[in-house]
Amino acid sequence: MKYYSTQNKIVYTICAFAMMSFLIAVLNSCSPNNVKIDNSVKTIFDQYNVVGSFGLFDNGAGNFTIYNLKRYRDSAYSPASTFKIVNALIGIETGRISNEKMIIPWDKTIRVFSNGDTAKDWNKDLSLKEAFKVSAVPYFQEIARRIGKDTMQFWLDSLKYGNHQMGNYVDSFWLNQSLTITADEQLGLVKKLYFGQLPFQKRTHDIVKQIMLQESNANYQLSYKTGLSSMKNGKTLSWVVGWIEENKHPYFFVLNLEGAETVNMKLIRIEILKNILKQQGFLEGKR
Length: 287
What we know:
The protein has about 290 residues and is α+β, with helices and mostly antiparallel strands. About 40% of the residues lie in helices and about 20% in strands. It has two domains: about 1-30; about 35-280, DD-peptidase/beta-lactamase superfamily (Beta-lactamase, 3-Layer(aba) Sandwich), CATH 3.40.710. The chain has ten helices and eleven strands. A seven-stranded mixed β-sheet has the order 1-3-2-11-10-9-8, sandwiched between helices. A hairpin with a 5-residue loop joins strand 9 (about 220-230) and strand 10. The longest helix is centred in the N-terminal third of the chain and has 29 residues, at about 1-30. Residues about 1-30 have low confidence and may be disordered.
């Protein structure tokens, strides 16, 4: 009799556990999705004759606001100069960059942009902080050469950064389409950077966060890195990745733009970002 009583208890426990698991599954399937698709952003893209995607993550609420989910999640592109975030992190962590004040002397090569303008902000001695602000390619190419191919590959693998591919050249893989990354992966990187969750020392995180700060006023602090590259289809690709803080609360964003070669991405990308942020209720210190 005791045996049957014990067996019944076991059967009851198993049934109760199964029922609880079923209820949890049902409740989870009924919980609201944390992704909001916002197609109103399209009007801003259309205004500037560009296509692309936008993602915004509200860290406090755990919610995503996304325009063009398929492109945001599934399409990978060259990171272009947004890779300077990772290049700086690796450089500092490995000691190739001492701090944000470290100067690399100009090599006296006069560089010119594709539109014929002289790259006057690049053609001089630059510190890390200055080079990051003006997105000086030669500075970060030199840092990449100092890091070396094997060490760079180790960190790309450790970070699971995009497709991890470097090709043959340590100083141009983020520019020549060898390395690609999705917008979703970009957002994950800057979120981990902000919270010090990347496999680097706290000091490394802090220095890069410091040089990413672009605007700071009473209403908000805006931190980001831009990127620009030519696509195989002849169009121009641009990124803006980073975060905005209002009332000490961070929101992480990724803007991905694609337009005709005649579109001045350098001029419009921050305008587009701010127009979207305003549409989402930012820039006035009310979030």
